[in-house]
Predict the 3D structure of the following.
Amino acid sequence: MEFFRLAPYQAMFLLLCVGAISGCSQGPVTFPITGSVTLDGKPLQDGTIMFSSTENGNEMAEGKIIEGTYTLECTAGAKTVQVGGYTAEKKIVPWQYLSQDSSLSANVSQEAEINFELTSKQKRRR
């Protein structure tokens, strides 16, 4: 008899667990993005690349640049792109590419290859 008194509580607990699990989402759909980054025509040996949503500033994807190539997972949409690279001696990628206001951008719609050709000479403002 004691078994039957516990059964409704066990059933309620089971339903609560199933409800909690079914409420979990997988998150936004992302696409694999690969590409290359060059600086003055040569592959950037070591650095980072970050894609930030132009619509939602909280949504970002970041990848490591190794020997001029990168791979990351990114949601679809318009992105601003920031690239940074350093050696132990000095900063090798100009600040203009690392800034949130960099001139780099990308439009991610599906699996894609997106390449960036950078120059180390900064443009002078007039």
